[in-house]
Specification:
The complex is a heterodimer of chains A (133) and B (164).
Chain A: H1 3-7, H2 12-17, E1 19-25, E2 28-33, H3 48-69, E3 76-85, E4 94-103, E5 107-115, E6 124-132
Antiparallel strand pairs in A: 1-2, 2-4, 3-6, 4-5, 5-6
Chain B: H1 14-21, H2 25-30, E1 33-37, E2 41-46, H3 63-82, E3 88-97, E4 107-116, E5 120-128, E6 137-145
Antiparallel strand pairs in B: 1-2, 2-4, 3-6, 4-5, 5-6
Classes of the chains: A alpha+beta (133), B alpha+beta (164).
InterPro entries (chain A): HotDog_dom_sf (IPR029069), TesB_ACOT8-like_N (IPR049449)
Protein name (chain A): PaaI family thioesterase
Domain Acyl-CoA thioesterase-like N-terminal HotDog (chain A): 45-128
Chain lengths: 133, 164
Amino acid sequence: MTDAHSAQELTAYARSLGIKVVGEDTGMPLLSVDFGPNVEGRPAHFHGGATAGLLEAAGYAALRNALLAQGRDPKLKPINITVQYLAAGKSKPAYALGRITRLGRRNVNIAVEAWQDDRSRPIATAVMNILMG
Amino acid sequence: MQRGMNTPPARFDAREASKWFFRHGHTAWLGLRFADQGENWVELELPWREDLLGDRSRPVLASGPIISLMDMASGMAIWQASRTFNPVATLDLRVDYQRPARERASVLGRVECYRRTRSAAFVRGIAHDGDPDDPVAHVAGVFMTIAADPRKENPALGGSAGND
């Protein structure tokens, strides 16, 4: 397994939900989940919790990628996540990409966007704060 | 949203509604269960499960399913407080993680709807793994109530169910 792949390792929860790493964008892993029963809330729409799960997984994937580039492997302590829901997630694949807003020695702030057909029309965004031990 | 076979009775009761809600989709996949309810609050249980782990080194639940738990408990607390099942859309949900859940522990999510206006509902709650005085997480959220307009679906609903 290459370093790039280990950086993209997803949690058991993310894999079980059906989240996959489907590519790379601006140096960060691009994650995707297909629509299906696992993520369905209201009929034919994403459950808000599943959307949040995708956002969070993309945030962690971006962070692992950034830490790997610095040769660091600290223990991660999630502090909080704030999710903004902008539009309903429809019955088609959803994508998410994280961006490291600030990576310090002890803390990191990550912004994540999720979208479906149109990248310029996100369905949800998240901000995550994580402490590193 | 039309009331039909897939929607609970007119007078919302979280315990009864759980029988519908947790049979399909994301909440069924998570295995959510009804735990308790009050006038304006609902408590749900997220059972511990091997494939919901979020840490490579320890058997603790990932934070993702905890967000799902709290999102679902939030919606149900709003319906519990209003006594009716009117669709709501999550606008903003914030989760502050206090500590990891204990190993192999189920997580309970208790959310109250403390304020409703014509267009918004405000919720707050905790996730805990047995002792509500020692929470795993605190949550705060704002939901938008979706008034049914017979001429045009609210865009926040993303069109009527199943048309895409």
